[in-house]
Design brief:
This protein is of the alpha/beta class. The protein contains 21 helices and 32 strands. The chain folds into 6 domains: 100 residues, PriA, 3(prime) DNA-binding domain (GIY-YIG endonuclease); 63 residues, Arc Repressor Mutant, subunit A (Orthogonal Bundle), CATH 1.10.10; 179 residues, 3-Layer(aba) Sandwich (Rossmann fold), CATH 3.40.50; 176 residues, Rossmann fold, CATH 3.40.50; 59 residues, no CATH class; 89 residues, 2-Layer Sandwich (Alpha-Beta Plaits). The chain is 31% helix and 24% strand. A hairpin with a 2-residue loop joins strand 30 and strand 31. The two termini are 54 Å apart. The structure holds adenosine-5'-diphosphate and zinc ion (2 copies). One zinc ion (ZN) binds next to loops. Adenosine-5'-diphosphate binds next to helix 8.
């Protein structure tokens, strides 16, 4: 076959992008004419792989491998190919790895399975029986169903349906095996928006109708109805026959969201996240590509779905850290969402009660249009916030809950309401040490302490997942029962709560306590229905769950996030504490939040207590500007890692020595220095940080710099553009 291909006068080379870490597209030969965006099957190292035609190829015809076949899929739109190229360039990632995000559906290579469906034929049956009438009515109501489905629906035997096919009253047709997703009805149950909400919703709807790129920041306090508001814009979007994508930060949140979409539109959205089965992923991917999926709700990876007519992207809880993916392809989904909207010429809505500083500044400077919801919907009011000064009102020795917080808990529980103790630390205790010899339990593979998880009788490394049974005696000096827990995690707070309130039902809400998202969803629902009196939770409780009976939030250690001192410590603490406090009093009952702190005068805590977000952000942005920090500049983290420490340092020193390529262009280089986690999973890590003006062409300069250094095998140089983690 390939011999023919080489002499075929129609055979042409095409550049095909493959979902692999290659610097660019590879050339393949095809006699069948192809256009950019066509999906094709090719072989790479003997394996059949999906590729996408990126353009014309060059290459010597005789040396090229053939395109095996063109796949029966709608071509990848130009906007999407542009997104892959631009996102890859910006993040310093091989374009094929970005493409991989877009072809992560099973079964793309396989021919589509077909099934037989029945439609009304031109002939009237000669003999009309009751049973036949019911079948024909069922077909009229919804054509295109299988014989078995029809028989079941009409309550007749298979023979009746078969008879109708034989007379020609029904005709058999071939249809794709995958059925299109259920249709959403924009008029199913229209919400009555309040004045603020309708104004915002109309602004989004007008932006969609304008069919050009615009980014809007939907800045609304917790419980103000942001979801309610953007769902009305989604309604307008699907009414005009176009597609909407809604990104959610956490798959534990999707169940509640799916329910709301179903209530609003009479059918659920298409889901796309790690909890979706392979078959459902295949169906979802194709339904999106064919324009049959009206609304997709999903995790950040849904950004790379091949929408054919995308009109609206919503990034809900846009400030959420989980939008920054730190895997092999590091990207910030919020930024990619805006980039995609720009490529598509459509509307992006970033929604949050505590917008990221980046988005807030973009709204201040007019780059994004700001839509504001100031009030909670209906009778709900924002919680009353106060600080508990732990220096003046300390907990008893060996405990963590202050008398004032305990008193308030007693009061709300007595009224049948719930209290939440928030501590962003999993497990029982973050550090275990020997009282006799001072030994501390650390991970062999990481520079990190092992965290005791008492429920599981184990010590765990939160960095690499290493787990070992909790030792009975000190591994160093052999003394029995000498190991002491230092500091609290949620398990320890729950233990204290159970001691203080023996009759209360205490529940821990933490991702590792309930790793199965389904179980977690059930637990959240049970708590929302009143199945707990006291909830002890990590940051997962901050993420948009509605607990109507919750009226008291106690932040166990409000100082915790401020200690780290990284770029976003203040901002993150502000967001987290505001979101957690926002869990209280979301229904009729007013709520309050109490922040236990040793520094009630800290500017971040003052800003939270005074509720003056605008002043806080203004200050923060001035600080960033003065310190020449993002978003006024751009940072790129460089991580050099490998098993052999000497090699890692050699590469780091070589990179530093080659730095003139960067410094001459005005880029600052900090480091190399050992990373705070100098060892992770057995690999040594050295960090450097690049800082530059935002206009600098980093996609050209940084790879040129990297190319000057020989990197031996066993060492990797990783770039993280716009880093969120500095560890
Ligand atoms: P947010 O997304 O801003 O936190 P939600 O959209 O979840 O707020 O709304 C908070 C609560 O108020 C939800 O229970 C929601 O159903 C209710 N709500 C908000 N707006 C309306 C409205 N216009 N009509 C009826 N209920 C509303
Ligand atoms: Zn010891
Ligand atoms: Zn470890």
């Amino acid at each position: 076959m390939s011999a023919d291909l080489f002499t075929d006068p129609d055979a042409r080379p095409y550049a095909v992008m493959l979902p692999l870490p290659l610097p660019g597209a590879l050339d393949y030969l095809s006699a069948e004419p192809l256009v950019p965006g066509d999906y094709v099957a090719v072989t790479v190292s003997g394996r059949e792989t999906v590729g996408v035609v990126w353009g014309e190829g060059a290459g010597e015809v005789a040396k090229l491998k053939p395109v095996l076949r063109k796949l029966d899929l709608p071509p990848m739109p130009e906007a999407m190919r542009g997104l892959v190229d631009r996102a890859a360039r910006y993040t310093l990632t091989p374009p094929g790895m970005m493409l991989r995000q877009a072809t992560r559906a099973p079964g793309l290579l396989e021919p589509e399975k077909r099934r037989v469906v029945l439609m009304r034929g031109p002939v009237e049956p000669e003999k009309m029986t009751d049973a036949r009438r019911r079948v024909l009515d069922a077909v009229a109501a919804s054509p295109g169903r299988s014989a078995a489905d029809l028989a079941r629906e009409a309550g007749v035997s298979g023979g009746v349906v078969k008879g109708l096919v034989e007379t020609g009253a029904l005709e058999a047709h071939q249809a794709p095996q995958d059925r299109p997703p259920p249709r959403l009805d924009p008029g199913f149950r229209v919400a009555k928006l309040n004045a603020e909400q309708s104004e915002a919703s109309e602004a989004i709807t007008e932006s969609i109708a304008a069919q050009k790129f615009e980014a809007l920041l939907l800045d609304g306090v917790t419980g103000s109805g942001k979801t309610e508001t953007y769902l009305e814009a989604v309604a307008a979007c699907i009414a005009s026959g176009r597609q909407a994508l809604i990104l959610l930060p956490e798959i534990a949140l999707t169940a509640d969201f799916i329910r709301r979409v179903r209530e609003r539109f009479g059918a659920p959205p298409v889901e796309w996240h790690s909890g979706v089965t392979p078959a459902a992923r295949r169906r979802a991917w194709k339904a999106v590509a064919r324009g049959q999926a009206q609304v997709v709700a999903g995790a950040r990876s849904a950004l790379f779905l091949p929408f054919s007519d995308l009109a609206l992207i919503v990034v809900d809880e846009e400030h959420d850290q989980s939008y920054k993916q730190d895997d092999i392809v590091p990207y910030q989904a919020r930024d990619i969402a805006v980039l995609r909207a720009a490529q598509e010429g459509c509307t992006a809505v970033l929604a949050s009660a505590t917008p990221s500083l980046e988005s807030w500044i973009n709204a201040e400077t007019g780059k994004y249009r700001r839509l504001t919801l100031r009030e909670r919907h209906g009778p709900a009011v924002l919680p009353f916030l106060s600080a508990i000064d732990l220096r003046a009102d300390p907990p008893e020795k060996g405990s963590w809950l202050s008398p004032e917080l305990l008193g308030a808990t007693r009061d709300v529980n007595a009224r049948g309401e719930q209290a939440l103790f928030f501590l962003n630390r999993r497990g029982y205790a973050p550090l275990t040490l020997c009282r006799k010899c001072g030994w501390r339990a650390g991970c062999d593979q990481c520079s990190a302490w092992l965290v005791e998880h008492r429920g599981r009788g184990a010590l765990l490394c939160h960095q690499c997942g290493w787990r070992e049974p909790f030792p009975r005696a000190c591994p160093e000096c052999g003394t029995e029962d000498s190991l002491a827990a230092c500091g609290p995690g949620v398990e320890r707070i729950a233990e204290e709560a159970r001691e203080r309130f023996p009759l209360a039902r205490v529940e821990i809400l933490s991702s590792d306590q309930t790793p199965d998202p389904k179980v977690l969803q059930d637990q959240i629902k049970s708590i929302a229905d009143g199945g707990a009196d006291i909830i002890v939770g990590t940051q997962i409780v901050a993420k948009g769950h509605n607990f109507p009976l919750l009226t008291l939030v106690g932040v166990v250690d409000a100082d915790l996030g401020l200690a780290g001192g990284d770029l976003r410590a203040a901002e993150r603490t502000f967001q987290l504490l505001n979101q957690v406090a926002g869990r209280a009093g979301r229904a009729e009952k007013p709520g309050r939040a109490m922040l236990q702190t040793t520094m009630p005068d800290h500017p971040v805590l003052r800003a939270i207590l005074e509720g003056d977000a605008h002043r806080f952000r203004t200050r923060l942005s001035e600080e960033r500007q003065q310190a020449r920090m993002p978003p006024y500049t751009r940072l790129i983290a460089v991580i050099v890692q490998g098993e052999e420490e000497e090699k890692v340092w050699q590469v780091s020193r070589d990179l530093a020595a080659a730095g003139s390529v960067l410094t001459e262009a005005g880029i600052d280089i900090f480091g190399p220095a050992p990373a705070p986690y100098a060892m992770l999973r057995g690999k040594h890590r050295v960090r450097m940080l690049l800082r530059m003006a935002r206009g600098i062409d980093h996609p050209r300069l940084v790879p040129a710099w990297r190319a000057k250094v020989k990197v031996p095998s066993g060492v990797r140089v990783i770039f993280d553009v716009d880093p969120y983690s500095f560890l």
